[in-house]
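Changelog-linked ticket: CU-O-CU linkage example.
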Amino acid sequence: RAAAEEATENPLRIPPLAPAVQDGDTRVFDLVAAPGRLAIMPGGESETWGYNGPILGPTLRVRRGEKIQIHVHNELGEPTTVHWHGMRLPADSDGGPHQMIEAGATWSPTWWVDQPGSTLWYHPHPHGSTEVHVYRGLGGLLYIDDDETTSDLLPNRYGEDDVPLIVQDKTFDEQGQIVETGRRGVGMLGTTLLVNGQYRPTFRVTSELTRFRILNASTARSYNFGFSDGRSFHLIASDGGLLDAPLKLNRVQLTPAERAEIVVRMAPGERVTLHSYPQDLGAPNVPTGAQHEFDVLPLIAADELRPSPELPERLTEVQRIDPEHAVTSREFLLHRDRINGEPMDMTRIDEVVTVDTIEIWDVENVSRLPHNFHVHGMQFEVLSYNGQPPPPELTGWKDTVFAPPGVPMQLIMRFDKYTDPNLPYMYHCHLLWHEDSGVMGQFVVVEPGE
Ligand code: C2O
């Protein structure tokens, strides 16, 4: 059958799980960032960058409560960093622009994993070159497991019914080489969609329910995911972990760096395509790619499917942060190339926050470009969005949130545990060209009275 041939011709590549060794109380991983070559398009091979392979990187899988260390060795021939996006961790392990790894050097951050199970990711963060480092191929998934996210009531077989999808757009020349081109408005918008670094893969579904962990690892493009026949699915997790309950949707929008875990049901022998639909990015006069459509991933269900348990009614209990306990609020106005009037400056600390306090951050995009807003070192909650309670898909833990022009939002967050008066964390727009060109600021977390 044609469908079966198609599926065996270009089956979706699943990023390997990174091996780890136990050293005393610490699980230790190794990442090597290096250039590579890979035939992605029919035209020929492209130069690429990747971790432990020609493109992207292995999935790091860690468990809540354990101590980890990651040796990152830089063979790129130029300085880079690796940031653990969405992790709660000390500032010196964060991997932002202050933790440069020189060419040939190794950086070995270590920390205790202490936050809910979730789908996080890692990527370079050298100030001014983050966009090109990610675009050339660097990035990978970092799963935190806990008893709820690995429950047998949820699809949890890696690569079978619990499937990572890293979605990116790139432009290729006729020889199949990735080209860095066309920076306008939001940044580089590629003409070709890749899933897990692969052009036009197909996924063969083997269970009644499949969980897709979708990461938008594009540098600039936002997606509006849905299925070609309009079927609904359940959103079970946002950036920082499970939602309280599965949320029935037929579209989920992800701006750069956001993640969604969705669960979709298929019948034996069925075919359907995960697609990205036109969307509203709130900036009609800017080239944003909002009207582009893409086939993301054709799904072909086997003639016999492994039975899956029904999704549970409750997934977790998201702990709400009480706004009554907020000690401060701060305002962040996102302009075209700066925040609150200031472009990013590595030597300037913009905000000083006291440890063990709760704050409300009022964020508004006052430019005409779409932005989003990401805060390092934690997960936050959305308290209000455009003057309203947040829509249900924004009621779980988030670390990155879409900020269309003219939409004010309030984020509530707790700055607990880690302090360093000298070493900042970042907050920024995750459209990487915007980040590189100044829409970023720095905060430190200090002891009371420091
Ligand atoms: Cu995913 Cu500061 O970044």
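Closing comment: Example verified and attached. Helices lie at 2-9, 130-135, 432-436. Residues 162-306 form a domain with the Immunoglobulin-like fold (CATH 2.60.40.420).
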